Amino acid sequence: MTTAGVALAYDRWAPVYDLVFGPVFRQGRAAAIRAADRIGGRILEVGVGTGISLPHYAPSSRVTGVDISEDMLDKARARTRRLNLSNVDAIRVGDAEALDYPDASFDVVVAQYVVSAVANPRRALDEFARVCRPGGEIVITTRVGAEQGLRGGIERALMPLTERLGFRTDFPFALYTDWIATRSDVSLAERRAIPPFGHFSLVRIAKEKA
Ligand SMILES: C[S@@+](CC[C@H](N)C(=O)[O-])C[C@H]1O[C@@H](n2cnc3c(N)ncnc32)[C@H](O)[C@@H]1O
Protein backbone atom coordinates (compact mmCIF):
# COMPACT_ATOMS: atom_id res chain seq x y z
CA MET A 1 0.00 0.00 0.00
CA THR A 2 1.22 3.52 -0.81
CA THR A 3 -0.20 6.77 0.60
CA ALA A 4 -1.08 7.98 -2.92
CA GLY A 5 -2.85 4.69 -3.66
CA VAL A 6 -4.82 4.89 -0.40
CA ALA A 7 -5.84 8.51 -1.15
CA LEU A 8 -7.08 7.45 -4.58
CA ALA A 9 -9.02 4.53 -3.12
CA TYR A 10 -10.83 6.84 -0.66
CA ASP A 11 -11.47 9.49 -3.32
CA ARG A 12 -13.40 6.70 -5.05
CA TRP A 13 -15.20 5.68 -1.83
CA ALA A 14 -16.25 9.26 -0.98
CA PRO A 15 -19.61 9.42 -2.83
CA VAL A 16 -20.94 6.24 -1.18
CA TYR A 17 -18.84 6.04 2.00
CA ASP A 18 -21.52 7.09 4.50
CA LEU A 19 -24.04 4.72 2.97
CA VAL A 20 -21.70 1.72 3.06
CA PHE A 21 -19.70 2.36 6.25
CA GLY A 22 -22.03 4.65 8.21
CA PRO A 23 -24.31 2.29 10.15
CA VAL A 24 -21.85 -0.60 10.43
CA PHE A 25 -19.30 1.40 12.48
CA ARG A 26 -21.81 3.57 14.39
CA GLN A 27 -21.39 1.90 17.81
CA GLY A 28 -17.61 1.89 17.57
CA ARG A 29 -17.52 5.56 16.66
CA ALA A 30 -19.84 6.40 19.58
CA ALA A 31 -17.51 4.55 21.98
CA ALA A 32 -14.44 6.37 20.64
CA ILE A 33 -16.10 9.78 20.85
CA ARG A 34 -17.20 9.09 24.46
CA ALA A 35 -13.60 8.17 25.34
CA ALA A 36 -12.23 11.30 23.64
CA ASP A 37 -14.79 13.66 25.18
CA ARG A 38 -14.00 12.28 28.66
CA ILE A 39 -10.63 14.03 28.29
CA GLY A 40 -11.94 16.79 26.02
CA GLY A 41 -10.00 19.89 25.10
CA ARG A 42 -8.15 19.92 21.76
CA ILE A 43 -8.99 16.78 19.79
CA LEU A 44 -7.24 15.80 16.55
CA GLU A 45 -9.22 13.30 14.47
CA VAL A 46 -6.82 11.70 12.00
CA GLY A 47 -8.48 10.11 8.96
CA VAL A 48 -11.61 12.15 9.65
CA GLY A 49 -12.98 11.03 6.27
CA THR A 50 -16.43 12.42 5.47
CA GLY A 51 -16.62 13.91 8.97
CA ILE A 52 -19.25 11.38 9.98
CA SER A 53 -18.18 11.64 13.66
CA LEU A 54 -17.96 15.41 13.85
CA PRO A 55 -21.57 16.18 14.90
CA HIS A 56 -21.26 13.80 17.85
CA TYR A 57 -18.38 15.38 19.80
CA ALA A 58 -19.32 17.43 22.86
CA PRO A 59 -19.75 21.12 22.02
CA SER A 60 -17.05 21.86 24.61
CA SER A 61 -14.42 19.81 22.70
CA ARG A 62 -12.44 21.64 19.97
CA VAL A 63 -11.97 19.32 17.00
CA THR A 64 -9.50 19.42 14.13
CA GLY A 65 -9.86 16.84 11.34
CA VAL A 66 -7.19 15.76 8.86
CA ASP A 67 -7.30 13.22 6.04
CA ILE A 68 -5.29 12.28 2.99
CA SER A 69 -8.30 12.16 0.61
CA GLU A 70 -9.52 15.51 -0.76
CA ASP A 71 -12.86 14.03 -1.85
CA MET A 72 -13.55 12.66 1.64
CA LEU A 73 -12.60 16.05 3.11
CA ASP A 74 -14.99 17.88 0.76
CA LYS A 75 -17.79 15.86 2.37
CA ALA A 76 -16.49 16.70 5.86
CA ARG A 77 -16.35 20.42 5.04
CA ALA A 78 -19.89 20.34 3.60
CA ARG A 79 -21.16 18.54 6.73
CA THR A 80 -19.45 21.05 9.03
CA ARG A 81 -21.05 23.95 7.16
CA ARG A 82 -24.49 22.32 6.83
CA LEU A 83 -24.69 21.50 10.54
CA ASN A 84 -22.94 24.70 11.61
CA LEU A 85 -20.48 22.80 13.81
CA SER A 86 -18.86 25.69 15.63
CA ASN A 87 -16.56 23.44 17.69
CA VAL A 88 -14.76 22.22 14.54
CA ASP A 89 -11.64 24.38 14.27
CA ALA A 90 -10.24 23.06 10.97
CA ILE A 91 -10.65 20.37 8.31
CA ARG A 92 -7.35 19.99 6.48
CA VAL A 93 -5.39 17.72 4.21
CA GLY A 94 -2.87 15.91 6.38
CA ASP A 95 -0.87 12.71 6.34
CA ALA A 96 -1.07 10.55 9.47
CA GLU A 97 2.59 9.64 8.92
CA ALA A 98 3.82 13.26 8.87
CA LEU A 99 1.44 15.43 10.88
CA ASP A 100 1.86 19.14 10.36
CA TYR A 101 1.60 20.07 14.07
CA PRO A 102 4.17 20.77 16.79
CA ASP A 103 4.78 18.25 19.60
CA ALA A 104 2.06 18.02 22.28
CA SER A 105 -0.47 20.11 20.30
CA PHE A 106 -3.52 18.03 21.26
CA ASP A 107 -5.11 16.57 24.40
CA VAL A 108 -6.50 13.60 22.45
CA VAL A 109 -5.66 12.03 19.10
CA VAL A 110 -8.52 9.98 17.62
CA ALA A 111 -8.12 7.55 14.71
CA GLN A 112 -11.23 5.61 13.78
CA TYR A 113 -10.79 2.70 11.35
CA VAL A 114 -7.67 4.42 10.05
CA VAL A 115 -4.51 2.67 11.31
CA SER A 116 -5.18 -0.43 9.19
CA ALA A 117 -5.73 1.85 6.16
CA VAL A 118 -2.45 3.76 6.54
CA ALA A 119 0.55 2.74 4.41
CA ASN A 120 3.00 2.64 7.39
CA PRO A 121 1.00 2.14 10.60
CA ARG A 122 4.01 2.36 13.01
CA ARG A 123 5.04 5.70 11.55
CA ALA A 124 1.47 6.97 12.06
CA LEU A 125 1.44 5.73 15.68
CA ASP A 126 4.74 7.57 16.31
CA GLU A 127 3.15 10.75 14.97
CA PHE A 128 0.02 10.29 17.12
CA ALA A 129 2.26 10.00 20.21
CA ARG A 130 4.33 13.02 19.21
CA VAL A 131 1.39 15.44 18.78
CA CYS A 132 -0.44 14.15 21.90
CA ARG A 133 0.41 16.03 25.10
CA PRO A 134 1.83 14.14 28.12
CA GLY A 135 -1.18 12.92 30.15
CA GLY A 136 -3.35 12.84 27.01
CA GLU A 137 -4.69 9.83 25.13
CA ILE A 138 -4.66 8.21 21.73
CA VAL A 139 -8.10 6.70 21.03
CA ILE A 140 -8.26 4.17 18.22
CA THR A 141 -10.95 2.00 16.73
CA THR A 142 -9.32 -0.72 14.71
CA ARG A 143 -9.82 -3.86 12.79
CA VAL A 144 -8.15 -6.83 14.46
CA GLY A 145 -7.25 -9.82 12.32
CA ALA A 146 -7.83 -13.39 13.50
CA GLU A 147 -4.14 -14.33 12.90
CA GLN A 148 -4.92 -18.09 13.04
CA GLY A 149 -7.61 -20.53 11.93
CA LEU A 150 -10.01 -20.32 9.01
CA ARG A 151 -10.79 -16.61 9.43
CA GLY A 152 -7.06 -15.77 9.58
CA GLY A 153 -6.50 -17.72 6.33
CA ILE A 154 -9.39 -15.98 4.58
CA GLU A 155 -8.20 -12.55 5.77
CA ARG A 156 -4.68 -13.17 4.44
CA ALA A 157 -6.08 -14.44 1.12
CA LEU A 158 -8.25 -11.31 0.75
CA MET A 159 -5.36 -8.89 1.35
CA PRO A 160 -4.44 -8.25 -2.32
CA LEU A 161 -8.05 -7.27 -3.03
CA THR A 162 -8.75 -5.22 0.12
CA GLU A 163 -5.45 -3.30 -0.15
CA ARG A 164 -6.67 -1.99 -3.50
CA LEU A 165 -9.88 -0.89 -1.75
CA GLY A 166 -7.86 1.03 0.86
CA PHE A 167 -7.68 -1.23 3.94
CA ARG A 168 -6.10 -4.38 5.33
CA THR A 169 -8.04 -7.41 6.52
CA ASP A 170 -4.95 -9.13 7.99
CA PHE A 171 -4.03 -6.78 10.85
CA PRO A 172 -2.67 -8.37 14.06
CA PHE A 173 -3.25 -6.67 17.41
CA ALA A 174 0.46 -7.35 18.07
CA LEU A 175 1.17 -4.38 15.84
CA TYR A 176 -0.08 -2.16 18.69
CA THR A 177 1.49 -4.09 21.58
CA ASP A 178 4.85 -4.40 19.76
CA TRP A 179 4.82 -0.65 19.05
CA ILE A 180 3.95 0.17 22.69
CA ALA A 181 6.81 -2.10 23.84
CA THR A 182 9.31 0.00 21.86
CA ARG A 183 8.39 3.21 23.73
CA SER A 184 8.74 4.40 27.32
CA ASP A 185 6.18 7.21 27.01
CA VAL A 186 2.97 5.27 26.19
CA SER A 187 0.97 2.45 27.76
CA LEU A 188 -2.13 0.45 26.88
CA ALA A 189 -5.00 1.89 28.94
CA GLU A 190 -7.81 -0.25 27.49
CA ARG A 191 -8.67 -2.71 24.77
CA ARG A 192 -12.37 -3.48 24.34
CA ALA A 193 -14.22 -5.46 21.63
CA ILE A 194 -16.70 -3.38 19.65
CA PRO A 195 -19.25 -4.41 17.00
CA PRO A 196 -19.57 -5.55 14.29
CA PHE A 197 -18.83 -9.30 14.55
CA GLY A 198 -16.18 -8.90 17.26
CA HIS A 199 -13.59 -8.17 14.52
CA PHE A 200 -12.91 -4.66 15.84
CA SER A 201 -11.53 -3.14 19.03
CA LEU A 202 -11.51 0.18 20.82
CA VAL A 203 -7.92 0.81 21.94
CA ARG A 204 -6.96 3.57 24.38
CA ILE A 205 -3.27 4.37 24.63
CA ALA A 206 -2.17 6.71 27.41
CA LYS A 207 0.69 9.14 26.90
CA GLU A 208 2.63 9.21 30.18
CA LYS A 209 2.66 12.42 32.18
CA ALA A 210 5.93 14.29 31.79
C1 LIG B 1 -12.04 3.48 6.69
S1 LIG B 1 -11.93 5.24 6.49
C2 LIG B 1 -12.44 5.84 8.10
C3 LIG B 1 -13.07 7.20 8.03
C4 LIG B 1 -13.67 7.70 9.33
N1 LIG B 1 -12.66 7.83 10.35
C5 LIG B 1 -14.79 6.81 9.81
O1 LIG B 1 -14.91 6.57 11.02
O2 LIG B 1 -15.61 6.38 9.00
C6 LIG B 1 -10.18 5.51 6.54
C7 LIG B 1 -9.81 6.97 6.34
O3 LIG B 1 -8.42 7.12 6.59
C8 LIG B 1 -7.89 8.00 5.63
N2 LIG B 1 -6.43 7.78 5.52
C9 LIG B 1 -5.77 6.72 5.03
N3 LIG B 1 -4.44 6.90 5.08
C10 LIG B 1 -4.26 8.13 5.63
C11 LIG B 1 -3.11 8.89 5.96
N4 LIG B 1 -1.86 8.44 5.71
N5 LIG B 1 -3.27 10.10 6.51
C12 LIG B 1 -4.53 10.58 6.76
N6 LIG B 1 -5.66 9.91 6.47
C13 LIG B 1 -5.53 8.70 5.91
C14 LIG B 1 -8.65 7.65 4.36
O4 LIG B 1 -8.56 8.66 3.37
C15 LIG B 1 -10.06 7.47 4.92
O5 LIG B 1 -10.80 8.67 4.95
- H/E element sequence: HHHEEHEEHEHHEE
User: Given this structure, which CATH class is correct?
Assistant: Alpha Beta
Radius of gyration: 16 Å
Which range best describes the helical content: under 10%, 10-25%, 25-40%, 40-55%, 55-70% or over 70%?
25-40%
Structure description:
The chain is α/β, with parallel strands linked by helices. It has one domain: Vaccinia Virus protein VP39 (Rossmann fold). The chain is 38% helix and 25% strand. The chain is built from 7 helices and 7 strands; from the N terminus they run αααββαββαβααββ. The chain has helices spanning 3-13, 17-21, 26-39, 70-82, 121-131, 149-165, 174-181; strands spanning 42-46, 62-67, 88-93, 106-112, 132-143, 186-194, 200-207. Strand 4 (106-112), helix 5 (121-131) and strand 5 form a beta-alpha-beta unit. It starts with a helix and ends with a strand. The model has no long low-confidence stretch (mean pLDDT 92). The structure holds S-adenosylmethionine. Pfam families: Methyltransf_11. This is Phosphatidylethanolamine/phosphatidyl-N-methylethanolamine N-methyltransferase.
Keywords:
single chain, 210 residues, alpha/beta, Rossmann fold, 7-stranded mixed β-sheet, 7 helices, globular, binds S-adenosylmethionine, methyltransferase, phosphatidyl-N-methylethanolamine N-methyltransferase activity, Methyltransf_11
Care to give the gist of this entry?
This protein is of the alpha/beta class. The chain has helices at 3-13, 17-21, 26-39, 70-82, 121-131, 149-165, 174-181, and strands spanning 42-46, 62-67, 88-93, 106-112, 132-143, 186-194, 200-207. It has one domain: Vaccinia Virus protein VP39 (Rossmann fold, 3-Layer(aba) Sandwich).
